[in-house]
């Protein structure tokens, strides 16, 4: 069977074209797969970024909560301390008042003691006391002897 | 027009209990109320006399007397017919209100003006007058309400909506309140929970407060109410008994949406029931053999080259429905994130390779909850090899923990909460149906965590975004892993979410300051 040169050239050209198109299709498929992989990779990154954002927001929320809780705790402790300070001050003032009262009482007692001591000295220095001692001397001497005997 | 109309049907109450009830109403610190009492032809003569006396003593008391006994529904409707208040407060004739009940309700309504239905915590009063059995109720949980009438007392309903839905319905005696609430919430703009004990439910030998089985007819009516509510809300579902006063709702999905099952895999092997088993092959086998739902594709995520043996075990059973994706970053969180990125369906199942399915309709059952409002994740109970619960959700009170861990599957738990589907703060993502967009919107799983701490972190992120999770006992999944689901990264978690620990809205431990209950 005779084949013309023209049809042979056509057939070769057609095969070459088919081969070229096949290669192009393969490359396009590979590019598509690459693009899909890249898209998946980007999507994963988006997911991770979103998680990171949500996580950070949650973390900030947690920190804010802890801060507020701690601040509330400190505020409460401050109020308690102020309350304790008030009570302590009052107790302290009460204690000082009690000490001052005791001191005044003590001074008054000391003055009374001094007055009594002066009264006693005056009594002992009086003529009556001295006369009495002279008169009572024999009685005291007898008592002394009896104690020795 | 008073703000509150207290609605009380009266039929031969124990006299002493009724007097306590009267005192509790009269002692209200908020005075903006009227009390509508309907005497349902009580045979005891003192009832009519006492009601007449009350009416003369206080002009806010309004009494009507029925000529013939009509039952609780008819009497309650008569009391409503008399009322003028903006809100109806339901009170039984032998129960008591806390003295500040109406004030707490008024405060809550002021904070949420769109509220159409409000409920509070409650306790019970023993025949000897002791308060017991505090019920610290969860935040608004519509899924749980389908399984049990957990809102019960105190219930406050906007009168206009009660009128819209046609008041109490005959044929639901014993569960008439539940039926009314189910109809009201279909129209309610907002539902509010007041976490305070505002209602004291007297436990008499015949009342439902003393035993769930005291009024079996009431439970039958309750199941009917739930069934009709589901019909009205265009939900195809089967309602059956799950336990004493507990209903089980199994929804049937009309649509069969495509679902992507995301499984992070590696070449690991583990002794399962005494046999050294490749985990990846095991989960694939379980998935293929057990699932009756067919509209799913599988995305297997590996962060290293898999052995030929594993690849063969993974790819063969799916007949072209499986894709293997290579994660560029190490760590479970990034593997799951890679799976989420590759996912092109609305819903995905996140699956640990250490799981094994027990129920064949697991995916249908989980999908039944997927379209509930604001639900980001639905999960099954995770069981160990011996049938003990490993996780029935993640709770936050007092600290992050797996709910019901170590309990037997037959254990109903406090107030039956382990036997029913309900809203929870979070779920273990070892097996969970998730709303992909919700997870992506909060940034997926955090690569900052290398252990299951990421589940708790995810729950906190979703909760912050206004999403919650549902746990269902309709599906049980075996988890072949004896390591704790909770984590040793608690310090790291605390740095993000420490402030919310201890304040789980769905699993509360009663740490409230107990309000004084004497009048």
Write the layout of secondary structure elements.
The complex is a heterodimer of chains A (149) and B (519).
Chain A: H1 5-125, H2 127-135, H3 137-148
Chain B: E1 4-10, H1 15-26, E2 33-39, H2 45-57, E3 61-65, H3 71-82, E4 87-90, E5 96-97, H4 101-111, E6 115-125, E7 131-135, H5 142-147, E8 155-158, H6 159-165, H7 176-184, E9 190-202, H8 216-232, E10 237-243, E11 246-251, E12 259-264, E13 269-272, E14 275-278, H9 279-290, E15 296-302, H10 308-315, E16 322-326, H11 332-342, E17 347-351, E18 355-357, H12 362-370, E19 375-383, E20 389-391, E21 394-395, E22 401-402, E23 422-424, E24 431-435, H13 436-441, H14 453-464, E25 468-479, H15 490-497
Parallel strand pairs in B: 1-2, 1-4, 2-3, 6-9, 12-15, 12-17, 15-16, 19-25
Antiparallel strand pairs in B: 4-8, 5-9, 6-7, 6-8, 10-11, 13-14, 17-24, 18-25, 19-20, 19-24, 21-22, 23-25
What labels describe this entry?
heterodimer; A: about 150 residues; mainly alpha; about 95% helix; B: about 525 residues; alpha/beta; Spore Coat Polysaccharide Biosynthesis Protein SpsA, Chain A; ten-stranded mixed sheet; nine-stranded mixed sheet; 15 helices; 25 strands; elongated; disordered C terminus
In short:
The complex is a heterodimer of chains A (149) and B (519). Chain A has 149 residues and is mainly α. Chain A has helices at residues 5-125, 127-135, 137-148.
Q: Please tell me the total number of domains of chain A.
A: 1
Find the CATH topology of the largest domain in chain B: Spore Coat Polysaccharide Biosynthesis Protein SpsA, Chain A
The value of Rg of chain B in angstroms is 26 Å
User: Could you estimate the helical fraction of the residues of chain B in percent?
Assistant: 25-40%
Give the overall form of chain A. rod-shaped
